[in-house]
Amino acid sequence: MAIDRVPSLKRCRSLGLETAVVGLAKSSKRQPKRSGRKVSEYGMQLKEKQKAKFIYGVLEKQFRSYYDKAQKMQGITGENLLCLLERRIDNVVFRLGLASTRRQARQLVSHGHITVNGKRLNIPSALVSVGDVIGVKEKSRSTELFKEIAESKNALSVPAWLTADIQNLTGSVTRFPNRDEIDVPVNEQAIVELYSK
Q1: What is the pLDDT of residues 121-149, one digit of tens each?
Q2: Which key words tag this protein in UniProt (predicted)?
Q3: Structural domains in the chain?
C-alpha cells in the first residue's frame, strides 16, 4: 500500500495551508517568505488538487475515482467531489470530535475502534449514508483517549449535517453536507478544470 511520508508541517507550508486545517498545532518555526513568482493556471489547479488530497489523506488513484463518481452524480461536480470526501468515515470521526486529526481518525478506524450502525468498520475510505450512527466499540471506550474525550467539557463545533453525543461517544449523519458547510480552503472548480483538460 502506498503511503505519503512527507512531513505534515512541510506540506502545509508548501501548499500555503494553515496548520489548523489539518488539526496540527502551530509550528514554532518562522514561515519562510515565498518569492513573488507568478504561478501558471495549470500550477494553480494542480496546487488545489494537492491541497484537497493532503487535507483528506487521499492518494491520486483513489482521488481520481472520487472525481469520476462525482461527475456521474447530479449537481455540480466540484461540490459533489467535496461532499464525497466529507462522507469518508475517517473524516466523519474527525468531524464528530472523536479524533484530533484526520490521520488519527484514520488510524482509529483502521484499528477497529469505530462502529457504524453497531458493526465494526475498519475501512477508512468507506462512505457514510444519511441515518448512519457512528460510535466507539464497547471494548475501546475504556482506553485513555476515549475516556478523555467523553469527560471533556469543551463544547466541540460539529457541522450541522452531523449530530454528536460526545459523552456517549456517538454521532449520526442527519443529511449530506452543503458546500458552504465544508470549511476546507480548496477551490474545487480548479480541480474540475484540471481533470477536464
Answers
A1: 999 999 999 999 999 999 999 999 999 98
A2: Ribonucleoprotein, Ribosomal protein, RNA-binding, rRNA-binding
A3: 39-176+187-197 (3.10.290.10)
